[in-house]
Structures are given as structure tokens and as C-alpha cells.
């Protein structure tokens, strides 16, 4: 910028004011051809190439990964119990539409009848059937009133897992109150909860209870119209 001053007896002079440099700054991003070959990006590209190579080998030869499975399954039979080996084998070969083998069904039913808390905890770790599947498995069990052969078969299966000490038991009887209702079972064409032509109000249960081990198994049940005197 120029400044002119005129005074009497003086010569016209020109003074120039020096402009200060701008304080504003702008950052410029590096172009791709300058940063594309940095050591970090070259390392990442190498990892991607290696992973793509591994993936192509697995897609071309899927049997290479599954050929080791029979060898590991054989090790389970050698070092684990039959029950544990059955569970691990099922999980190693499980599919979304797989059918449960008989041994695994027995294992799952044992957990189911231990209680809902146990079943909810174990189902987070193992592939267990849902409650609807359990009901479908047990809906065909025919447990008739009185002494049932089915219950004695159940006791026989339960006692096979116990030693002589754990098998010692006592025979107990208990009473359970019921609502005076009648139920019609369509599949068997049968009306239950009758006690001498009257709706039952309670049920007497006869069961075996372990002495040295904590286990209990019902043996028989009878519907009664009146409560029983404890004496």
C-alpha cells in the first residue's frame, strides 16, 4: 500500500507499508501414490494375501480339515468315559437338523429331570434339546395308576449307575393335594383322577429313597377322594 504526503517546500515522497505474512495454515493430505507403499500397508497386504491363499486351499480340498476328526474321536474313546465320549462325539458332528442318538437322549433327560436350574446352566455349555423336545420324548410314557412295571424298569436303569452302597434305600409314602378336576387323555381314550367314581382330591405316592445317597424314585401312585390320616 502507498502513502503520499505533500507539504510546502518538501518533495513528494512515497512510503510503502510492508504487509505481514498471513497466519492462516492449511494441511494437505498425501496423495495415494506417495503413501500406498508405506511399510504398514505393505505388511497388511501381505497378511491379506496369506489369508486368501489359505482360504483357497480349504475350498479346493475340504477333506483336509475333516480327515483329522476320526483320529480325535478315537482319542476320546481311549481317554474318556463312554458317557463323556458320546457327548463330545455328538458335538463334534452335530448339525442343525441332526437326530439325537439314544445315549445322548438319556444324558439330556437325566439333566432335565435334575431340575430346571441345572438344565438352564448346562444348556449354555452344551447343545441340549429344548423343553418342547423333552415333552415330545416323554409324552408316550404310559405310567398307569398303581404299581407300574414302567417304574420298576426306571429303577433298574437308575440302579445300574450306583454301587452296592448307593443302592441301599427305604420305601416311603407321601401325600400330595390335588384340585378336584378330571382329565381326558385323547390318545388313550381314558379319564384320569377318578377315585371310586368321584373326583380325586389327593394322591398317595409310594417311592424309594436312598439311605446313604441322595436319590429318590417313585414306584406307584394312587388317587384318593379323601385325605389320609397320618396316624
From TrEMBL:
<feature type="domain" description="THAP9-like helix-turn-helix">
    <location>
        <begin position="81"/>
        <end position="137"/>
    </location>
</feature>
<feature type="domain" description="Transposable element P transposase-like RNase H">
    <location>
        <begin position="145"/>
        <end position="228"/>
    </location>
</feature>
<dbReference type="InterPro" id="IPR048365">
    <property type="entry name" value="TNP-like_RNaseH_N"/>
</dbReference>
<protein>
    <submittedName>
        <fullName>Transposase protein</fullName>
    </submittedName>
</protein>
<dbReference type="Pfam" id="PF12017">
    <property type="entry name" value="Tnp_P_element"/>
</dbReference>
<feature type="region of interest" description="Disordered">
    <location>
        <begin position="21"/>
        <end position="43"/>
    </location>
</feature>
<dbReference type="Pfam" id="PF21787">
    <property type="entry name" value="TNP-like_RNaseH_N"/>
</dbReference>
<dbReference type="InterPro" id="IPR021896">
    <property type="entry name" value="THAP9-like_HTH"/>
</dbReference>
Amino acid at each position: 500500500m502507498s502513502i503520499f504526503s505533500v507539504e510546502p517546500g518538501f518533495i513528494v515522497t512515497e512510503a510503502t507499508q510492508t504487509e505481514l505474512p498471513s497466519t492462516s495454515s492449511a494441511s494437505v493430505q498425501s496423495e495415494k501414490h506417495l503413501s500406498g507403499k508405506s511399510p504398514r500397508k505393505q505388511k497388511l497386504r501381505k497378511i491379506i494375501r496369506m489369508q486368501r491363499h489359505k482360504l483357497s486351499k480349504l475350498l479346493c480340498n475340504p477333506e483336509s480339515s475333516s480327515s483329522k476328526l476320526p483320529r480325535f474321536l478315537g482319542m476320546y474313546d481311549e481317554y474318556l468315559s463312554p458317557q463323556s465320549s458320546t457327548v463330545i462325539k455328538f458335538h463334534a458332528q452335530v448339525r442343525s437338523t441332526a437326530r439325537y442318538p439314544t445315549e445322548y437322549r438319556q444324558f439330556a433327560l437325566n439333566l432335565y429331570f435334575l431340575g430346571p436350574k441345572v438344565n438352564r446352566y448346562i444348556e449354555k455349555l452344551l447343545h441340549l434339546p429344548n423343553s418342547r423336545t423333552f415333552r415330545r420324548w416323554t409324552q408316550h410314557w404310559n405310567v398307569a395308576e398303581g404299581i407300574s412295571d414302567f417304574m420298576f424298569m426306571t429303577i433298574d436303569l437308575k440302579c445300574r449307575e450306583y454301587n452296592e452302597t448307593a443302592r441301599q434305600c427305604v420305601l416311603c409314602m407321601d401325600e400330595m393335594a390335588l384340585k378336584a378336576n378330571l382329565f381326558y387323555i385323547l390318545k388313550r381314550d381314558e379319564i384320569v383322577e377318578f377315585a371310586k367314581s368321584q373326583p380325586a382330591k389327593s394322591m398317595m405316592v409310594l417311592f424309594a429313597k436312598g439311605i446313604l445317597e441322595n436319590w429318590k424314585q417313585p414306584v406307584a401312585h394312587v388317587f384318593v377322594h379323601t385325605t389320609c390320616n397320618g396316624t
